[in-house]
Amino acid sequence: MFPIRRARSPSDPTGAGQPSARRRGALLAVDLLDIPFRRRAAPALLAIVLVGLADLLSGRDRYLAPLMTVVPSIAALTLRPRELLGVCGVGLLAVFGLSHYDRVDTINDARFLWGAMISYLLLTVFSAWVAKIRMRRAAAFAAVSSVAEAAQRALLRLPGPVVGPLHLAVRYVSAADASQIGGDLYSVLETPHGTRVAVGDVRGKGLGAVQTAAVVLGAFREAAYDEAGLCGVAARIEASVERHVPDGEFTTALFAEFRRPGVVELLQCGHVSPIRVDQEGRAHVLDAPDPWVPLGLGRLAVGEPSTWEQAFGTEDVLVLCTDGVIEARHRGNGAFYPLAERVGPLVCGAARSAAELEAAVGRVYADLLAHTGGELRDDALLLFITRTDGAQGPHILPG
Q1: Which residues pair with 319 in a beta bridge?
Q2: Which interval of the chain is the signal sequence (predicted)?
């Protein structure tokens, strides 16, 4: 009913708006204050109506007005203190009205009435205090969320929707709800060696994964400009991971280089295989002929990593993701999300414009949420890429 996560897009790489506005938006979301008052007050008002109806329908020989004490407790969950006092005032008037209807006028009945009223008033004051504490905690949560979001933006340095000859569309979701940061990473850079893309997935979650992601991204941003080939880029990142990341931690990664029209060069380091969707909507899984081990495990492997080339024209869409997408389980039978089967029709024609590419990634993300029932249990990244250079369709590569 209420969204608890936001998927991120590169269409606004700077995060337009003042920090205070973002904090206010986060506070409204976490404390339900972005919902109209009438909807937030509805549960407490409904409780007043139900108690009143129960008393009226039970006849004058039964006095059920003391059940109105449930109203302050319910109101404390969704209302501000002042709003709570107003709604509870309506409940108090209902208590008086029911008492008059039930003819509570004997001495013993009057004592019972005053006891019920005093209990109601004390519970109302206590509930207002609880609501105030709830709002303070929500403000603290919003502050943490805002700082974490700023840290995530600083770490990822979200690219714009256009980098060199490439159009991009992204959806990024972290499994760490409280902090909105995670271990999935991506970067797109225009370098002297062409436009280079890195997508990675750090083992684990939380702050440890973020620290590893920072090492990988920092090394990629340096090596992408300095190294002539993707293998050199991967070697530089491998060296940084070995120096700065604890033993046993690793990062799966996929590197792509767009240097010549009609062709993309790829290097796969234990990562999810990319998918090319052609202009007819057919999905082609681009499995590496000789995949390499994840970053951080290079010392355990024999030999050297190698790249391979794939045709990639202006009518194609390159779909990159992390395992949080393909390992997302069905809400009912637990089956993994079949990205290769679903992505073709959802992405068909998306290469025509940046707007259609953004709409396509939105459709795939919505389909992913429908598959899982609206909740993702792992970090998830979807990165769609098209190219806008002068290629006249895919080249036929030898072999």
Answers
A1: 275, 384
A2: none
Beta strands in the chain (DSSP E): 162-163, 166-173, 184-191, 194-202, 251-258, 263-269, 275-277, 283-285, 308-311, 317-321, 380-387
CA dist 354 and 104 (Å) reads: 71
Q: How far apart are the C-alpha atoms of 206 and 40, rounded to whole Å? A: 33
Give the C-alpha separation, 362 to 9, whole Å. Answer: 10
d(CA 142, CA 236): 38
Q: Burial letters for 238-276: b for 16+ Cβ neighbours within 10 Å, e otherwise?
A: bebbeeebeeebbbbbbbbbbeeebbbbbbbbbbbbbbb
Distance between CA atoms of residues 214 and 359, nearest Å = 30
Average pLDDT score over residue span 175-203: 81
Residue 167's DSSP bridge partners are 162, 386
**Alpha-carbon gap, residue 90 to 34, rounded angstroms:** 24
User: Quick one: which of 4, 61, 7, 1 has its CA closest to 325?
Assistant: 7
- Which candidate, 183, 186, 238, 239, places its Cα nearest to that of 213? 183
Q: How many CB atoms lie within 10 A of CB 327?
A: 13
Residue type at position 10: P
Beta carbons within 10 angstroms of residue 191's beta carbon: 17
Cα-Cα-Cα-Cα torsion 101, 105, 109, 113, nearest 10 degrees, comes to: 60
The Cα–Cα gap between 317 and 168 comes to 10
Distance CA 359, CA 363 (A): 6
Output the pTM of the full model.
0.67
User: Maximum distance among all alpha carbons in the chain?
Assistant: 101
Element (H, E) at 249: none
Q: What is the pLDDT of residue 50?
A: 92
Mean pLDDT in the chain? Answer: 81
Q: What are phi and psi for residue 61, nearest 5 degrees?
A: -85, 0
Q: How far apart are CA 259 and CA 118, in angstroms?
A: 78
